[in-house]
Amino acid sequence: MALPRSLASSLFGTQSRLLSTVSRGNGSPVLLNESPFVRGYASESGEETFDVQVRDYVPHHIEGPGTTVTTTKSELMTYFETMYRMRRMEIAADMMYKAKFIRGFCHLYDGQEAVIVGLEAASDYKDSIITSYRDHCTYLGRGGTVFEVIAELMGRSEGATKGLGGSMHFYNKAHNFYGGCGIVGAQVPLGAGLGFAHHYRKDGSVAYTLYGDGAANQGQIFEAFNMAGLWNLPVIFICENNHYGMGTADWRGSKSSAYFTRGDYIPGLKIDGMDVLAVKHGVAYAKEHAVKNGPIVLEMDTYRYHGHSMSDPGSTYRTRDEISSMRTQRDPIEHVRKLLADVAGVEPSELKKVEKAVKKEVDEAVEKAKQGTIPEAEQLWKNIYHETLGATMRGMDSQTKIKL
Ligand SMILES: Cc1ncc(C[n+]2csc(CCOP(=O)(O)OP(=O)(O)O)c2C)c(N)n1
Ligand SMILES: [Mg+2]
């Protein structure tokens, strides 16, 4: 089924991607770095490499990278497994929410997995990252586990933030992940600040600040662009264009939905956000630019499969056909499955084994999280101020006073 014209015209295209193998050789693997997705890769020198064509990048005030990306079977297997783990985790969160094990806000990331996996493949933990409330997979990307995520969503003490933060507030300071922000767009100037820190320390790392197509129209985004531009900060602004801000399609809410050009004087690049290799290659290019020259705006053309949050069935403002076309024609995991088969000759049974192991891992994490402990009530009074200075807090009734 075809997509509605309005959406189809703003996408890279939905025709099935037949990725051509350009050449094979025994060159050394590309892009060695400290990301969890290709870590340990250096020892595998001699592995056969494949050159794969990705979709054209659309540049703005910059040349843009080439479209040939070198990869290996083991790299693709890692992407497949990691994205599949994210997908299963989000599906488990959906089920646990419906079973009332998870309460409150809960925004899922399925459909968008290639963005965070490709970004992390081009990065290391010295680069900072900050994002919106749609942050479960960002936490996994920074080294977190499925158990920590599910336990957090269930409000257990064993969760990523001891059951006190929930869905919107994952973070991991040790790995430079600064959250998880519930206020739309507020993370963008904070991300510019993280870029300022890298600039000040001259440490050669960058700050990624991710925001949505809905957030992209806020004034504070342009203030952040201006300051980052003035000071040549190593900031990579990443608009994850999943084509909806809650129930509003991007073309209804944005006068220009060419988000990669919205930095005006700041260079930009539109990237196929459903192709992990295109994302990795594009982000690596952006990183090199940002460290040398200052900010760049990336637009990741992606799609969210679920509704905005668990309270949105996601089907009243878009058609089921649109969602199923995305799943059948642009799904990021199916894309890597196809590459593995066509380019690296991997048998379906090998991938089935991976899927079975990941499903088991997620199921076990869910069961273990259910057995986790609920934080003591007194935790409600903790972590309010950095230093309490002997302050007291009023309870529900004016008589109850609690010393912090
Ligand atoms: C300042 C502010 N305004 C409004 C909201 C309510 N709100 C939450 S998410 C959202 C839509 C954001 O859409 P987008 O930026 O495209 O991100 P996505 O949810 O698609 O990842 C809105 C309006 C909010 N949380 N904060
Ligand atoms: Mg959006």
TrEMBL record:
UniProt KW Transcription regulation keyword: no
In terms of InterPro entries, this protein maps to: DH_E1, PDH_E1_Alpha_Subunit, Pyrv_DH_E1_asu_subgrp-y, THDP-binding
Domain of life where this protein originates: Eukaryota
Keywords from the UniProt entry = Oxidoreductase, Pyruvate, Thiamine pyrophosphate
Assembly mode = Tetramer of 2 alpha and 2 beta subunits.
Q: What is its EC number?
A: 1.2.4.1
Job description of the protein: The pyruvate dehydrogenase complex catalyzes the overall conversion of pyruvate to acetyl-CoA and CO(2).
Pfam families to which the protein is assigned, alphabetical: E1_dh (PF00676)
- Which species does the entry assign this protein to? Coccomyxa viridis
Task: State if Oxidoreductase is listed as a keyword.
Answer: yes
Q: Which reaction does it catalyse?
A: N(6)-[(R)-lipoyl]-L-lysyl-[protein] + pyruvate + H(+) = N(6)-[(R)-S(8)-acetyldihydrolipoyl]-L-lysyl-[protein] + CO2
- The record's gene field reads g10257
Q: What is the name of this protein?
A: Pyruvate dehydrogenase E1 component subunit alpha
Q: Which PANTHER family match?
A: PYRUVATE DEHYDROGENASE E1 COMPONENT SUBUNIT ALPHA, PYRUVATE DEHYDROGENASE E1 COMPONENT, ALPHA SUBUNIT BACTERIAL AND ORGANELLAR
Boundaries of every Dehydrogenase E1 component domain copy: 82-377
Q: Which cofactor does it need?
A: thiamine diphosphate
